[in-house]
DNA sequence: GTCTATAACGAGATAGAC
DNA sequence: GTCTATCTCGTTATAGAC
């Protein structure tokens, strides 16, 4: 694996666990096994690293969801829930959620990257929900747009609260109810 | 207003807007109009300030909710939603949600304070939902416990995402759907 | 209860050699 | 592409005078 990729993966974990304001270049350098100035060679500033990482994160999400658009609505929804669920056992939260809480401390060039991350999910979910409804596979008690926002908000919030509690109980309670209501 | 109260209010705003790792004693000192060492006289360490502040925050929430336990289930639910909604216009998120994202960087003495904050809300909401169901005032499509977790998670997540987007659209979409489904 | 002065440390970032 | 050395600044916290 090349150096840029190594830096990406360690920085991403640090952000998902501790936040942008909770880690430093020194932390990455220590784990990667190079000096701090070497990191600046690959990413001139911390803001640059965050921006490139958020772009990569969104791209990976897009690929994951696009490759599952042709599944049944129930399976697609399940795949989406699992995307969030896998973070708990690693003591991570979503990078988009983490950066959102820190948004007022971040360089403004990050803001549109955050909007893009959430807008994409909103559109993907809305389409899946509409498909599921017309297929008779999902039951909607509100508009697809409202349900999509609610699902995203619930997953983000449940992940953050569950991770802080140190177990997955809260996440499971929230999402099981949500899923059984829809199916 | 006495000095401790001044410090509390400014520190609370800074945390809700920027996070524990996004502000310093210098920021408070500047706004209060005293020197940094004077702050240490009132709160010996930053961790001490955070802990006292979180206790106060939970106490205020408890008083707010207890005083509304005798309202109708719909009105109580509305009061709870408004508690979260008022943060958006001030560019704040919930202090409990903010500290939860930063939990791995905080002194462990903060952890039980966070658990208490969320456990209390869970119990209060569950009771309200059960009452509303037996009164025929609320419709539940899942257990009261699951619905309570889902509501808390959705409010936290929607607040974080909406605040980052810079408008209340996402929050309103999420919560309007949730409320109309229940009533 | 507030101040000045300062300690001790870690942050992001740069210069310049190899 | 990596290093050592260094800069500048901000951080939490303490000592001790008023």
TL;DR of this structure?
The structure is a homodimer of 183-residue chains. By secondary structure, chain A is mainly α.
Structure explained in plain terms:
2 copies of one chain form a homodimer. Chain A has 9 helices and no strands. The mean pLDDT of chain A is 98. In chain A, helix 5 (73-88) packs across helix 7. The first copy, chain A, has helices spanning 3-18, 25-32, 36-42, 46-66, 73-88, 95-101, 111-135, 144-165, 169-182. The N and C termini of chain A lie far apart (42 Å). Chain A has 183 residues and is an all-alpha fold. Chains A and B meet through helix 6, helix 7, helix 8 and helix 9 of A and helix 6, helix 7, helix 8 and helix 9 of B. The first copy, chain A, binds a DNA duplex (18 and 18 nucleotides) through helix 3.
């Amino acid at each position: 694996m090349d150096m840029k990729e190594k830096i990406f993966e360690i920085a991403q974990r640090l952000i998902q666990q501790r936040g942008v304001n909770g880690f430093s270049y020194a932390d990455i350098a220590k784990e990667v096994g190079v000096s701090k100035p070497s990191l600046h060679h690959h990413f001139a500033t911390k803001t640059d690293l965050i921006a490139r990482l958020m772009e990569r994160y969104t791209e990976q999400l897009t690929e994951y969801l696009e490759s599952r658009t042709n599944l049944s609505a129930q399976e697609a929804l399940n795949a989406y829930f699992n995307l969030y669920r896998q973070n708990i056992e690693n003591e991570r939260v979503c990078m988009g959620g983490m950066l959102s809480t820190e948004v007022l401390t971040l360089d403004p060039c990050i803001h549109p990257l955050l909007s893009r991350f959430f807008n994409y999910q909103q559109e993907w979910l809305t389409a899946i929900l509409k498909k599921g409804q017309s297929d008779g596979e999902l039951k909607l008690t509100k508009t697809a747009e409202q349900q999509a926002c609610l699902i995203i908000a619930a997953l983000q919030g449940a992940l953050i609260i569950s991770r802080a509690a140190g177990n997955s109980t809260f996440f499971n309670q929230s999402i099981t109810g949500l899923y059984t209501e829809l199916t």
